[in-house]
Design brief:
By secondary structure, the protein is an alpha/beta fold. It has two domains: 2-113 and 225-339, D-Maltodextrin-Binding Protein, domain 2 (3-Layer(aba) Sandwich), CATH 3.40.190.10; 116-210, Periplasmic binding protein-like II (D-Maltodextrin-Binding Protein, domain 2, 3-Layer(aba) Sandwich), CATH 3.40.190.10. It contains 17 helices and ten strands. The chain has helices at residues 2-29, 45-53, 55-59, 71-80, 91-97, 146-157, 174-181, 194-201, 214-221, 234-239, 241-258, 263-269, 272-275, 279-289, 301-314, 316-319, 332-339; strands at 31-36, 62-67, 85-89, 103-108, 116-119, 137-140, 166-169, 187-190, 207-210, 228-233. The strands form two sheets. It has a five-stranded mixed beta sheet with strand order 2-1-3-10-4, sandwiched between helices. Strands 7-6-8-5-9 form a five-stranded mixed beta sheet, with helices on both faces. Strand 6, helix 6 (146-157) and strand 7 form a beta-alpha-beta unit. Helix 8 packs across helix 14 (279-289). The longest helix has 28 residues, at 2-29. Residues 1-5 and 8-28 have low confidence and may be disordered.
Length: 340
């Protein structure tokens, strides 16, 4: 009887293991298309690094990353149905809530926006404040992106009519740096590594506003202001909870990896086309950026309220929409991962 019992127990254990493997394989075969608004930007590094480290696969989901010029283009892909999830700035969730579109962020990887309003090296003597941008050409990653929102917020804050400024899409990487150095634009909203690269090439570079650190973010917004997150339509989240949990687990594992490794080690893991020819400049930018990355993946409710407050100031539609900002994000999947 004892022999029969052992054989039965072993058979049952084998069934459980094989069933678990089959379930994991089934999840791994479920493909998720992830739209990113400029993969070379360090603000999106956790998303891209998770792919390089194989964290999505380890978590049991097959993620295809599609890189777009800016956050607005990535958002359009999800709204249009050609992508499943956006890796972009949380503020889009708040802005679209005013238009009746229910988007939710489910894991936050940037505690701060990391945005900087930088003056072209050719305009250093003529542009000394945000007010000097009236009737100038200012670059953003793409019109309608978070860089564009940030610019309009700063202009209104300083009493400058946003309609008096020519907004031009220049991307976030080498194209933005080239546009600045060649004088195609007079200023630009940029992110690292481009800001640090431009500083390295142009001593005395003027930065009119900077949100790469907690101190600067508090100065600009009056509170912490979440940046990059994974978000998508709330109905997609409800019908793909396993995939959402797996992607959350992957980002959290990547954040943990980031905070336990050096900038040099992180740079070695990134694709050469993202690092660029100036690896030392990329590493220097990483050192500036590391404090920006979240350690928990959680949305700070006060941060979400700050985003709503900023958009309420700059957008009449948001101000009168009576948005319940708690519905634009969920910490459910981060908390589930923490329990495990």
């Amino acid at each position: 009887m004892s022999t029969l019992f052992r054989r039965a127990a072993m058979a049952a254990a084998a069934f459980v293991v094989s069933t678990g493997l089959m379930a994991g394989a089934a999840l791994a075969q479920s493909k998720v298309t992830l739209a990113v608004g400029g993969g070379s930007c360090l603000c999106y590094l956790p998303t891209m690094l998770a792919k390089q480290l194989g964290e999505y696969e380890k978590a049991g989901v097959n993620v295809e990353v599609i890189d777009f010029k800016g956050g607005s283009d990535a958002l359009k892909a999800v709204i249009g149905g050609s992508a499943d999830v956006v890796s972009g700035y949380f503020d889009h969730c708040v802005n679209l809530a005013a238009k009746g579109q229910h988007l939710q962020a489910f894991v936050v990887y940037d505690r701060y926006p990391g945005l900087a309003l930088v003056v072209s090296p050719k305009q250093t003597d003529s542009i000394k404040s945000v007010k000097d941008l009236a009737n100038k050409k200012v670059g953003v990653s793409a019109p309608g992106s978070s860089t564009d929102f940030f610019l309009k917020y700063l202009l209104k804050k300083e009493g400058v009519d946003p309609n008096s400024v020519g907004v031009i899409g220049v991307g976030l990487g080498a194209t933005a740096v080239a546009a600045m150095e060649q004088g195609q634009i007079d200023a630009a909203v940029m992110l690292d590594p481009s800001v640090t690269v431009l500083q390295g090439r142009n001593k005395g570079l003027r930065i009119l506003s900077d949100t790469r650190t907690q101190h600067d973010t508090l100065q600009v917004f009056g509170g912490e202001y979440p940046g990059g997150a994974l978000y998508t339509r709330a109905d997609w989240i409800a019908s793909h909870e396993k995939e959402v949990q797996a992607m959350t687990n992957a980002i959290l594992a990547t954040l943990k990896w980031i905070h336990s490794h050096t900038p040099e080690e992180i740079a070695d893991k990134m694709p050469p086309e993202y690092v660029g020819k100036d690896k030392a400049g990329y590493i220097a930018a990483l050192k500036n950026t590391l404090p920006m990355y979240s350690e928990t993946g959680r949305m700070d409710p006060k941060g979400a309220e700050a985003v709503l407050a900023v958009f309420s100031q700059g957008s009449p539609d948001v101000a009168k929409a009576n948005i319940d900002v708690t519905k634009t994000y969920t910490n459910k999947y981060v908390e589930a991962a923490s329990k495990k």
